[in-house]
Amino acid sequence: MNSLPLTDVEQRFVENLTEAISRSPSLLLPADFYDSFNFTQTGKNFTHPRTWGLIVKACWALPEVAAVEVDVRLNLGSGRKFQPDVAARNSAGDLILAIDYEGPNSSDARILSKDVKPYIGWAKELRRRGTQPPPYLIITTLPRRPPPGVWKLRWTAKGHYNYGRSKDWDEMARHPYDYWYGDYREKVGKLLEEEPWATVRFLNLDGARLEPVRL
Q1: Partner of 87 for a Cys bridge, out of 6, 16, 69, 147, CB 3.0 to 4.6 A?
Q2: Are 119 and 200 within 8 A, CB to CB?
Q3: How many folded domains does the chain comprise?
Q4: Residue 1 falls within a domain, yes or no?
């Protein structure tokens, strides 16, 4: 079970990111930035890089943070690798927060295999070595009710993450949040129940609204 409430550091990060989003110029974060695929396409692929920048800004606003790392490779050997989009460290060099952002085109079935399982495998090895793993935040981008005709389902060919889900297209396009979080609660939630020590938290962007999600 993904337990709430958030820790103090996590809550302040959420507040910082919410403020950074709200203060962004509307020209750069327009109303459809997070509830369509308009900025996750060839020639206008801005959702991920701009949000990574806002996440970094929100991390630097935490007084505990002395270093922020982007696209860091955390490799413990023996296949225990974890590669979050952003990691924050305190002045002692300890990781205090790891964050992955999934935009409109990646808030899908890959979260279990790409995000959660690598974190748990890496964190288990870290714990075995006597080090406490940092809390892990996964930020999805899933509107509850996007405007008609704007949401998409990619990577449905055989061998890809969303293979076999084309039959769910109508339901998913109308209610992306309900569809995917139903899937996460079943699959990710079950895994986290087996690993109750794992501090994996989910946040979701519904438009520009950032909210914690309980699995």
Answers
A1: 69
A2: yes
A3: 1
A4: no
What is the Cα–Cα distance from 162 to 5, expressed in whole angstroms? 31
**Domain, as residue range, for 167:** 8-213
CB hemisphere CA count around 43 (13 angstroms): 1
What is the rounded distance in angstroms from the CA atom of residue 72 to the CA atom of residue 169?
A: 34
81 burial (CB, 10 Å; 0-12 / 13-18 / 19+) is middle
Tokens, residue 154 = 């990619």
Q: For 161-185, what is each residue's pLDDT tens digit?
A: 888 898 988 899 999 999 999 999 9
Residue 106's φ and ψ, nearest 5 degrees, are -130, 5
| The two three-digit tokens of residue 153, written as one number | 């389902």
- How many whole angstroms separate alpha carbon 140 and alpha carbon 142? 6
Cis peptide before 118 (omega within 30 of 0): no
3-class DSSP assignment, residue 202: strand
pLDDT digits (tens, 9 = 90+) for 49-94: 999 999 999 999 999 999 999 999 999 987 789 999 999 999 999 9
- Residue corresponding to tokens 């950074």: 20
Give residue for tokens 């900025």.
39
Rg value, the chain, Cα: 17
Tokens of 203: 């946040």
CA distance 164 to 155: 10
